[in-house]
Amino acid sequence: MTDEQWESICHGCGACCFEKKIDRQGNVHTTAVPCRFLDIHDRTCRMYSQRLLIEEDCIQLTPQNISKLSWLPETCAYRALQRDNIQT
Length: 88
Ligand code: SF4
Fold this sequence. Notes:
Bound molecules: iron/sulfur cluster
Distance between the termini: 18 Å
Number of domains: 1
Strand content: 15-25%
Order of helices and strands: HEEEEHH
Structural class: alpha+beta
Number of strands: 4
């Protein structure tokens, strides 16, 4: 899969760009606090090409790390892809 194909999987919901809290039991709770660079109206990152340089908490999603990122929303297109790959 090319980088472009990988990027095209994202449906741009922006749900991953809200702060998360993880409780003592390991449950993930998404807050209503967006990343400072998230355009709240169109749900895009205003600094997308530089995000990894300027926001230390931003993580690049890759085929290798998706399965380790338990805080990604259930609705995330990459999680759905991962679920599909496990089931096939
Ligand atoms: S939650 Fe997943 S599908 Fe939604 S914007 Fe983030 S990476 Fe894309």
